[in-house]
What we know:
Layout: E1 4-10, E2 19-25, E3 56-57, E4 65-66, H1 71-80, H2 95-104, H3 108-122, E5 124-125, H4 137-143, E6 145-146, H5 148-161, E7 165-171, E8 191-198, E9 201-205, E10 225-229, E11 234-238, E12 245-255, E13 261-270, H6 272-284, H7 286-295, E14 301-309, E15 318-326, E16 329-331, E17 334-337, E18 359-360, E19 365-374, E20 388-391, E21 397-405, E22 409-418, E23 422-423, H8 428-443, E24 446-447
Parallel strand pairs: 5-6, 12-19
Antiparallel strand pairs: 1-2, 3-4, 7-8, 7-10, 8-9, 10-11, 12-13, 13-15, 14-15, 16-17, 17-24, 18-23, 19-22, 20-21, 21-22
Helix pairs in contact: 3-5, 6-7
Amino acid sequence: MINEQKQTISSLTGLTNQIGFLIQKWAAKDIPALKNERFITTSEDYLMRVSFQLSQIQYPNEPLKNYSTSWEEVTKRFREYEDFGSQLKKDGVVKEVAESIKAKYSTPVQQMDAAYRYIQKNFTWNTKWSMFTDLGVRKAFSEKTGNSADLNLLLVMILREMGIEANPLLLSPRWHGKVNVLYPSMQQFRHVVTCAEIDNNVFLMDAISKDAPTGVLPYECLSNQGLVLKDDTHDWVSLYSNNKSVHISNSMLRLNEDGKIEGTIQVQDKLYEAMEKRSAIKEIGEKDYIKTGWLDKVTNIEVKKHKFKNLEDVHAPLMAEYEVAIEPDQAGERIYWSPFIKNPYSENPFKQEERKFPVDFGHPFQKTYLVNLTLPDNYEVEELPKSQIYRLPDNSGEFSYTIANSGKAIQFKGSINMSKPVYESEEYAGIKELFTLMEAKLSEQIVL
C-alpha cells in the first residue's frame, strides 16, 4: 500500500547541472506475522516487500546507459563478464580430457556421464556458491578445486568440446529464494549448474555434488526456475524434480520366548533419500551415522551388525542391512509394539489449522515399510490396529496402513506416497488430514 508520495526537486549549488530527487514514502499496517513453516524454500519468498534496482544512468554529457531492463540485457551482461562468459572461450584447457573421454565412450549420453563423473571424482568444491568464477577455469583445472562456477563451467566446456550441446544454467538455491521471472535482475541468482541437451532430452547436473546421479540436481537446487544461457538466446527451465525419491524398509523379525525381538532390517534408498544418506555417512562416518540415524531416534534398539552396499556408486540404490535386537514395551505378560520401527517423521510437520504458503517438497517421494514378525508358541495376537487407507482428493498423495495376522506371523505394510513436488496452499487441508492420520497410526501398537 502506498501511504504517501511526494516529489521534491533540489539543486546542488556550484554545479552546472541540476540533479532531481524523487522521494516516495511507503507504509502498511495490520500486517499479519510471518510464521516460519516446514517445506518451503525460504520465508523471504513470502515476505511482503518493495524492491528497487538501478535500471539506467546518464551522467552529464554522456550517453544513457541501461542496466538490467530486460532478461536480454541481463544475459548479455553475463556473456560479457570476464568471470563468466569469457571463461567459456578458454576451451583449450579441457581439450585433452574431452578427447580422452570421447575416445573411450561411443554415445553422447555415455560421454556426458563420464564427463560429469570425471569432475565429481577429480575436483573438490571449496564450499563457495557463486555465478562467477573464483580462480578462473584454467587455474581451477590445474588445482582441481574451485567454487560452483569454476567447476560447472569446466563441465560445460568439456561437454562442448565433445560436441554435446551444453550451457550454463543460472539459479537461486532454495536457501536464497525463488527467482521472479517478471523482475530482470542479476542479483536474484547465486549459483550456476550445467544444462545439456541430447536428442531433445534435457539433463541438469551440478558439478559440486559428489552424491547426485547424472541428470539429477541436488535438493538445494530444486527451486522454481532456472535461466539457461545459450550463445545468443536464453530459456527458462523448471527446476522442480519429477524423479521420485524412494525409501523401502523390509524387516524380517522374530519374537523370542523371552519377549525380545531379533532379526534383520534391509533398507533400499533411491535418489534424494540415497543422496542425503550417502552425504551423511561420508561426512560423519558409519559409526556415528548408526548412532544419529538409529540409536538416537529409535528407543530400545541395538544394532549388532550393519553393512552398506553401493556407497560410492551414486547411480545404484544405496543398500543397507542391519542386524537388530529390540526390547518392546511390556506390562505384565503383555507386549506392546509398533511395527513402525523407525518413525519417518519425528513429529507431524503440518499441525497448523491453515497454511498460506505452498507445501514445497521439491520432489515426489515414497516411503514403504514392510514387516514380517514371527511369534513363538507361548505368544499369540491379542489385538491388532485396524488397516486404513487415506488418499488426497486428486489421488496425488496416499497413506496406507495394512496389517494382518496369519497364525504365528504378523505381516505389516505402511507407506506414504506423495506424487507431486509442490502442493498449493488450497490443497493443505488434505495434506494435513493425511499426516494427522499417519501420526495417529504410528502410535498404535500390536498387543501380544
